[in-house]
Specification:
about 575 residues; about 60% helix; about 0% strand
């Protein structure tokens, strides 16, 4: 892998090679937005895409036929519209069949219910074709009997999509069905849970039991996931979840991976009860020979990481013992979110514990097989950013620089925090000669106007004297920083000088023997009503002496006298003693 190359998604358009994390996010979102726009146009205007010019024709690469081919009012036409996911057309055609007295088979009616419950009685869109992960997180609390916050409980939603409306088409069709089987009830329950009507879903489940039907495993999974919306107290939630598990055993429904993940997801919102019961759930999975997925570890780490009185390192080490042995494939909708919490949370723990060995293990597990694919661009950048910050804190500087060269920009774009961490690591290891190359990276990343970074950079370069070669490189950096402060143009306003920044730049110019540049900076002190330090004055006088510039030395004495500095007399004496002055200059 070329460490200087950008992410593969940008390599087909060199003009759009991102320079920093913000550009990377913008360009990647723009690309995905373009794809979605193209899909939308094809779906909305299929009549313009009915001609095939490809030779040879590859059907799987051609747009799907989305226009109904069967005309008239018939059950076959209804089936076709259901297959094409035409929600409104399917409901209208079903109503016409009922009004005409045509009996619709139970199988077809159930298929219509499936469509309505999936899309929430709204027309299908590209955005709704992928179910989003439910946000069931709630602050961890130690007291198992503590009540969940009422406002949080009421505001929580199980889906960011459409809400379940009262007496919608699905409910209306369900009520007029001449006969209903278990599939009918299960579809309604799952649709209600998906679209936030958990209480109605529970009532529907009671009706299913009263009709002596049996629910399938997917319905139980949905009901278990809805438990936090049915009960407020943590212990009551766990008791209701156990009720559903007992019903599964009574109805001889075999649990699957999604069942246990739904249970762990519910335990995330059960405070101390969740922490005490989650390990029992994992043991039950082992007893049934069900391998955990990434979402399983996500839930487990969330439960224990939120516990302030528990040491998280033990849990993450045990999780890593399992994860390191396997390469994962998606098995749960929550697997895609594994990276956003499990890996990043793990790195947060490593940072808190200052455990670099644990971080290396985590990184090795993330890179094994295709595990890295579970992280999108944003999460990958966040992951590497945290990992690099930990390296700067704990590793030797040679190792840090090796990782930095290999990671940027092929794996991540450093954040301002990463640059600050790197500068502090260079300072701690006394490797300040690397700063000019870091400054070049800062310019490339667009951080050359960050006041905090500029102050840190200037402070490190000017703190002490270095060999001439390094001082010249530092002076070049100072020149760039001076240009940023004095930048004129419509695009960006010049940065405001601070007294400390002026002092640092003047010192760097003086030590590099650039007397005129140093004097130009000294004049700025008077313009912005700042006072140069005695060190700055002495360094400038040394520079003037080294370059034999008595005129600049006299200007310095005049400036000190104008500002009323106590050191003006001392500077005057030094100038008279160290410079050969003409009568006029005297």
């Amino acid at each position: 892998q070329d460490p200087t190359a950008a992410h593969y998604m940008f390599q087909d358009d060199p003009f759009l090679m991102p320079k920093n994390a913000a550009n990377s996010r913008l360009f990647s979102l723009s690309k995905e937005s373009g794809r979605n726009a193209a899909k939308y146009i094809i779906k909305q205007f299929p009549q313009y895409f009915d001609k095939t010019f490809a030779e040879p024709n590859v059907p799987c690469l051609m747009p799907d036929t989305l226009t109904p081919q069967i005309e008239g009012v018939s059950e076959e036409a209804l089936k076709e519209r259901i297959r094409l996911r035409k929600v409104k057309d399917s409901v209208d055609l079903f109503d016409q069949l009922v009004q005409a007295g045509t009996a619709v088979s139970l199988e077809t009616t159930n298929s219509l219910l499936d469509l309505l419950c999936f899309y929430g009685d709204e027309e299908s869109t590209l955005e709704k074709e992928e179910e989003e992960k439910e946000d069931l997180e709630e602050p961890g609390v130690n007291a198992s009997e503590q009540k969940a916050p009422k406002r949080q409980f009421q505001r929580s939603s199980q889906s960011s999509g459409s809400r379940w409306r009262e007496n919608n088409s699905a409910e209306r069709i369900f009520k007029i069905m001449p006969e209903r089987n278990a599939h009918s009830y299960c579809t309604m329950i799952r649709g209600m849970v998906k679209h936030g009507a958990s209480a109605k879903a529970y009532d529907m489940y009671i009706d299913l039991l009263n009709e002596r039907h049996k629910a399938d495993v997917h319905t139980f999974n949905a009901l278990i996931a809805a438990v936090p919306y049915l009960k407020e107290r943590f212990l009551e939630r766990w008791e209701l979840a156990k009720v559903f598990l007992n019903h599964m055993a009574q109805q001889e429904v075999q649990p699957n991976l999604l069942t246990f993940n739904a249970l762990l997801k519910t335990l995330r919102r059960c405070g101390g009860v969740g922490r005490s019961m989650s390990l029992l759930v994992i043991k039950e999975m082992e007893a049934l020979d069900i391998e955990p997925s990434l979402a399983t570890y996500d839930h487990l780490l969330f439960i224990f990481y939120r516990g302030v009185d528990l040491c998280p390192s033990g849990i993450i080490s045990e999780v890593l013992d399992d994860v390191e042995k396997r390469s994962f494939t998606p098995q749960d909708p929550g697997d895609g979110m594994f990276g956003s919490f499990k890996i990043l949370t793990g790195l947060l723990q490593c940072c808190d514990l200052k455990d670099i060995k644990l971080a290396y293990r985590l990184n090795k597990a993330m890179e094994k097989g295709d595990n890295w694919k579970f992280l999108d661009m944003d999460r990958l950048n966040a992951y590497w950013s945290k990992f690099f910050s930990l390296l700067c804190m704990m590793e030797q500087i040679d190792v840090v620089l090796k990782w930095y060269k290999e990671m940027s920009p092929s794996l991540f774009y450093p954040t301002p925090k990463n640059i600050l961490d790197l500068l502090q690591a260079l300072d701690a290891a006394n490797h300040l000669e690397v700063i000019p190359s870091v400054w070049e990276d800062m310019k490339q990343l667009g951080f050359n106007r960050r006041q905090d970074l500029l102050e840190e950079l200037l402070s490190l370069m000017s703190r002490e004297k270095h060999p001439d070669e390094i001082q010249l490189a530092f002076a070049k950096c100072a020149e760039d920083i001076k240009a940023v402060h004095e930048q004129t143009g419509r695009e960006q306003a010049p940065l405001e000088w601070t007294g400390s920044a002026l002092s640092h730049v003047a010192l760097l110019f003086s030590r590099a023997g650039r007397t005129q540049d140093a004097w130009n900076v000294m004049e700025r002190f008077q313009q912005i009503n700042r006072i140069p330090t005695e060190q700055v004055m002495d360094e400038f006088l040394n520079c003037a002496k080294q370059t034999n510039c008595p005129d600049e030395a006299i200007k310095l004495v005049k400036l000190a006298a104008y500002l009323g500095l106590p050191s003006s007399q001392k500077l005057k004496s030094r100038t008279e003693k160290e410079f050969e002055l003409s009568e006029k200059q005297k």
